[in-house]
Amino acid sequence: xxxxxxxxxxxxxxxxxxxxxxxxxxxxxxxxxxxxxxxxxxxxxxxxxxxxxxxxxxxxxxxxxxxxxxxxxxxxxxxxxxxxxxxxxxxxxxxxxxxxxxxxxxxxxxxxxxxxxxxxxxxxxxxxxxxxxxxxxxxxxxxxxxxxxxxxxxxxxxxxxxxxxxxxxxxxxxxxxxxxxxxxxxxxxxxxxxxxxxxxxxxxxxxxxxxxxxxxxxxxxxxxxxxxxxxxxxxxxxxxxxxxxxxxxxxxxxxxxxxxxxxxxxxxxxxxxxxxxx
Length: 278
What we know:
The protein folds into two domains: 5-235, TIM Barrel (Alpha-Beta Barrel), CATH 3.20.20.60; 237-278, no CATH class. The chain is α/β, with parallel strands linked by helices. Helices cover 49% and strands 12% of the residues. It has helices at 5-17, 28-36, 46-52, 63-76, 93-105, 128-144, 166-183, 196-205, 222-226, 237-253, 259-263, 268-274, and strands spanning 20-22, 24-25, 42-44, 81-84, 110-114, 150-154, 187-189, 210-213, 231-233.
């Protein structure tokens, strides 16, 4: 079901006004918890969704399975939902258009589309010109559906070792970012970038807003926001933290104990109330 226009507009407003902390859900339960905590919008995490289904990250889940999970998450909350569609589940612009169409029909008001080739290409990343064509296809299909989709162009120059010097990596990120914005993206997402000075340099020179991702060792987003970053995503972090807690409970249960389960108990009545509206 396509989301109401007001939800698209609300998500666009949240991204443009800045200082948006965006949590990433991997199922209906996590989405409901983020919504109940007061988050104005939610994104999905492809890695978290894949792990919950017993799969590795990086498009091992496939288009239809991912779209089904996105639909379940979007239907479970009343706030805008942005969908992580990885690299679009295909190399060609037509593949991206098919995935974006499915994401909009699943209820998403935004998408992340990355330039990581995930081993499908001779090189780690899509050629910038090819990625621009893929982003243009995403914008075109959204326009055909009269959906003002918020397109977040992910750049993996920091996640992957491309053999670039720090200066060259930053320049490549800027060049790709501005090219992607010109091709139809609304925002640039650079996971792996953590340095505040680099974030400020990039935010000042991009012709659109910048999105970063929470990382281990970073305890807050204020410095990034003050540097001009508009949005910070939690990414797969919450799912990995849950896995860490489950591992702790599993270890404790081997000793016939359950202190962590007691310490972090949510409560059966709370859970029933959380899902009372179906």
